[in-house]
């Protein structure tokens, strides 16, 4: 199975979301939240596309990579899913390490909050992510969809209608 940074992100949010996504059930286009996030992404730093490189790692595409300083820049809308954001970005760093760039670091950027956060990859993080990769394979192989989690953020999830609307 090919594991992407999106799998890593969803693993840290909801295993049901991870399972649905891994089965090719995608509803992102119906989500206003996703549209809003895309807009922030496109409008926050209009000059950034010329400043940074788009890096295709095969299983992940990094939109803004500072090649000179080896820094991944990742824009997010809010800090509510910060743990998932951090592990997604750490996974980029792991992929870069596997591609022969072990010294890369990252910056999570929240333009609407005017906040940034530096992210690093430790050896412990690498071990943890390897375990997560293994668990993701197990979860996505299950025949039955994992249970709903009923969290406040379900309302903003792109699978909300699928999970909660009769
Ligand atoms: S709506 Fe809630 S339970 Fe359903 S996939 Fe999303 S986060 Fe998981």
Automatic annotation (TrEMBL):
EC number: 3.1.12.1
Domain DUF83 residues, every copy: 5-164
Cofactor note: Mg(2+) or Mn(2+) required for ssDNA cleavage activity.
One Pfam family named in its UniProt record: Cas_Cas4
Entries under PANTHER family matching the protein: CRISPR-ASSOCIATED EXONUCLEASE CAS4 (PTHR37168)
Cross-referenced InterPro entries: CRISPR-assoc_prot_Cas4 (IPR013343), Dna2/Cas4_DUF83 (IPR022765), PDDEXK-like_dom_sf (IPR011604)
GO biological process, one term: defense response to virus
Domain of life: Bacteria
The protein, known as: CRISPR-associated exonuclease Cas4
Keywords: Antiviral defense, Exonuclease, Hydrolase, Iron, Iron-sulfur, Manganese, Metal-binding, Nuclease
Origin species: Fulvivirga sediminis
Top enzyme class: hydrolase
Chain segments annotated as coiled-coil in the UniProt record: none
Listed cofactors: Mg(2+); Mn(2+); iron-sulfur cluster
Family affiliation: Belongs to the CRISPR-associated exonuclease Cas4 family.
GO terms, molecular function: exonuclease activity; iron-sulfur cluster binding; metal ion binding
NCBIfam families: cas4
Role this protein plays: CRISPR (clustered regularly interspaced short palindromic repeat) is an adaptive immune system that provides protection against mobile genetic elements (viruses, transposable elements and conjugative plasmids). CRISPR clusters contain sequences complementary to antecedent mobile elements and target invading nucleic acids. CRISPR clusters are transcribed and processed into CRISPR RNA (crRNA).
